[in-house]
Amino acid sequence: MRQAETRDAFEARLRAIGAERYHDKHPFHALLHLGGCTQDQVRAWVLNRYCYQEAIPRKDAAFISRVEDPALRRAWRSRIEDHDGSAEHEGGIARWLRLAEAVGLDPDYVASKRGALPATRFAVEAYVRFVREMPLLDAVASSLTELFAPKIHKDRIAGLLAHYDFANEASLAYFQRRLSEAPRDVAFGLAFVLDHADTLEKQDAAAAALTFKTDVLWAQLDALHSAYVEPGRVPPGAWQPGEGMLA
Amino acid sequence: MRQAETRDAFEARLRAIGAERYHDKHPFHALLHLGGCTQDQVRAWVLNRYCYQEAIPRKDAAFISRVEDPALRRAWRSRIEDHDGSAEHEGGIARWLRLAEAVGLDPDYVASKRGALPATRFAVEAYVRFVREMPLLDAVASSLTELFAPKIHKDRIAGLLAHYDFANEASLAYFQRRLSEAPRDVAFGLAFVLDHADTLEKQDAAAAALTFKTDVLWAQLDALHSAYVEPGRVPPGAWQPGEGMLA
After folding, report:
1. What is the pTM of this model?
2. What does the DSSP assignment read for B115-184?
3. Quick check: A216 and B123 CB within 8 A?
4. Chain A residues 176-205 with a CB less than 8 Å from chain B
């Protein structure tokens, strides 16, 4: 039987997955962050990415629904509130819809998800179902793309502020807020995975789960790029520029 | 309350969904059928489409698992055998793997699905889960893309025979066989949907299910086109030309 990797080697293996496959390497992000997107390409990104944002609290609720340890449930619960908000605090989804408004989209249209690419929905729902169906360790491991998120959020804030008129503190509040939320979440998730992946088989499964999640993110950008950048073929029924705009 | 459409009007509505959105309109099919694909593009199509073929009997088993009427279960069961085969008869999946061999791919590699595009898997599994989770009427309606399949299979047989060296009666046996299987299945499915969609609400749901299924098919070709035709960017981990070839 092969031995489990050491904690450090296993963490390095997880980080290497991000270095190779995280969607910061996708050319759409270079285009977006360097100011190369048209307004409509930014809109297409905002309205498709909404589907992902909206699914995250469902994913986290699916996770909590399977956990029998009240302490773990309690530790995970803030993720739902971060996105859905509370009576006192706006959540990430509301912040995302302010970004949608800032780029000229009707937030109700965006929230309806009517114009989203089918491929976006397939990828996002694959993630929700993964967390609903797979072992808890794999479910936590799939959240570890957050390890790689702070850099992309910083690049995005700087890039959008530098290149786009719609960008300001209010419209980019989502990303600013994630800079403090994500590290807290991922520190917990990483410790959980390093603690619980105590055989090579579990380490392999956790690495596969993180790889799966990078696929979920990459596939969304590929579909976006294909529909709205190159070759620029919008699938039947998906958003066309001009639809869903603020009155 | 709005009235249900007549049987004829509702059938026409379902057929119009195919006329607008079925994947015979996707440019990849024109490329394939007119001889414009490279060998590697054909291989990419064969190995990705395998994922869809392999999922069909799981989808049909998921359907049968939810049906309480033995007669309906019995009527549906041949679909599993058509694809998986029996002791006496080769099934559609085995025929598909012969096509894979004919284009030079190792059938074990294809069957492993290791090189398939993540977007293919997300779309295909969305279909399996739709049939597992949605009302039975919607599940049956989602199978009605078979209404539009005979024409594409005939075009494909003619186009592949005309343009590609690998094409012959043996390698294209899958498509030839579907020309007799699909009409029988879809006659049953269409009658079921027309009989059971007896309110406008159910008709709308059945039309939405068929639309969803056209999205599942279209998204697969979009991902294929994006990875291997234009812009030709293969996602991390997916098949690269040269991999998985017959020794």
Report:
1. 0.95
2. TS-HHHHHHHHHHHHHHHHS-HHHHHHHGGGGGGHHHHHHHHHHHHHHH-TT-STTTTHHHHHHHHHHHH
3. no
4. none
Q: pLDDT per residue over A164-215, tens digit each?
A: 999 999 999 999 999 999 899 999 999 999 999 999 999 999 999 999 999 9
Helix or strand (DSSP H, E) at B165: none
Query: What token pair was written down for B187?
Result: 């006659």
CB A98 within 8 A of CB A110: no
For chain A, the average pLDDT equals: 97
Instruction: State which fold the A7-228 domain adopts.
Output: Heme Oxygenase; Chain A (1.20.910)
CB-count burial class (<10 Å; 0-12, 13-18, 19+) for A88: exposed
Which ipTM score applies to this complex? 0.92
Domain definitions of chain B by residue range: 7-228
Give A198's DSSP letter: -
Residues 6+ apart with CB under 8 A from A60: A76, A79, A80, A83, A131
CB atoms within 10 A of CB B237: 17
Beta bridge partners of B245: B105
| Residue B219 with chain A: CB contacts under 8 Å | 117-119, 122, 223, 235
pLDDT digits (tens, 9 = 90+) for B57-89: 999 999 999 999 999 999 999 999 999 999 999
Can you read off the two tokens belonging to residue B74?
A: 């019995």
